[in-house]
UniProtKB/TrEMBL annotation:
A Pfam family hit: polyprenyl_synt
Protein name listed in UniProt: Octaprenyl-diphosphate synthase
UniProt keyword Metal-binding, yes or no: yes
CDD domains reported for this sequence: Trans_IPPS_HT
SUPFAM superfamilies: Terpenoid synthases (SSF48576)
Molecular function (Gene Ontology), one example: all-trans-octaprenyl-diphosphate synthase activity
Class of this enzyme: transferase
Cofactor(s) the protein needs: Mg(2+)
Domain of life from the UniProt record: Bacteria
Amino acid sequence: MPSPAADTSPNAAAALELIAADMREVDRVIARRLDTGVPLVSEVSKYIISAGGKRLRPALLLLMAGALGYQGDQHFNLAAVVEFIHTATLLHDDVVDESTLRRGRPTANESFGNPASVLVGDFLYSRAFQMMLDANNVRVMDILAEATNIIAEGEVLQLMNMHDASLDEAAYLRVIRSKTAKLFEASTRLAAVISGASPAVEEACATYGQALGTAFQVIDDVLDYAGDASETGKNLGDDLREGKTTLPLILAMQRGNPEQSALIRAAIEAGDSAQLTQIVAIVRETGALEATRDAAAAEAQRAIDALSGLPSNPHATGLLQLAAQLLERRA
C-alpha cells in the first residue's frame, strides 16, 4: 500500500487539491457515520481510516463528478460509502494474509486481534449499504452491490491461487480486476450515474476507473520487489511469503533459465522468502520488472484514452494527471 509520502508527486498533489474542500466534507460524513454506541467499532474503524494513504477511490469519484459538472451533494455520501467498502476489504485482507504492517504501522489485526478486525469489517460493509440507500437510486445500489460481490469473488480467487506457480498473466489480471480495480471502476461509474451522463460516457468513466485500478495494483506488485519498506509502508517480500504469484514473478519465470524458474517456483509453492535477495536479482536481470512496469503503463494509457470524450476542465485534467502519475510511482 502507498504511504502518505507518495502523495507528494506534483501531479497527484495538483489533482487532489482540486477536491480538497470536497474531501473534507467526505471526512465529515465518515466521522458522522462511524458514530456508534460500540466503542471498539469506532476505535478500530478510525485506526485504519486515519492511517493515511491517498483515499484514491473516493477522490476519483469526486474528480469524475466535478469533470461531469455534477451539482448535487450525493457524491459526498457515495465517496464515504466507497471508502467504507475499501476499508472493510483491508481489514479482512490483513487477517487472511496474516499481515502485520500497513502504511508503515501495525495492521488493525496486529493491534486489536483478528476477531475485532473481521467484525468491524462486517460493520463497515453493513454501514455502507445503509448509506447507499440515501441516494434513492436503484442503479447506484446495483453498481455497489455488484462491485462488493465481485470484490469478494476476487478475494476467493486469490485465496485459491495461493502457492500456485502455474498461474499465467490472464489469471493474474482476472484477480486484480476483481479484487482491486472493480472498486475503482465502481467509483467512476457512480459519478457518471449521479451526473446523468449518457451510457457512452458512463462506460468511458468505468473504463478509466478499471484501467487506473489495474495499473495501480500492477505497480503495487512491482514495489514488492523494487520498493523501499520505509517508503512503501509494507514489508518487502510479503507477496512471496504469502505465496502470491504476481506479474513480476510470472514474467521472471517465463524469461529466466530453468534454474531461475525452478527457484522462483519453489519459493511460491512453499511461501518462502528466504531466497528473496536472489529472486529480486532474477526479477531484475530477466527484465521482468521493466516488463511489468510496461504492463502498468499500457493500463495507464488506456485510462488516459478513456478520458478523450469528457469535457475539458480542471477536474478532467486532474484525472489525466493521476493516470500519468502512476507511471512515476515509486511508493
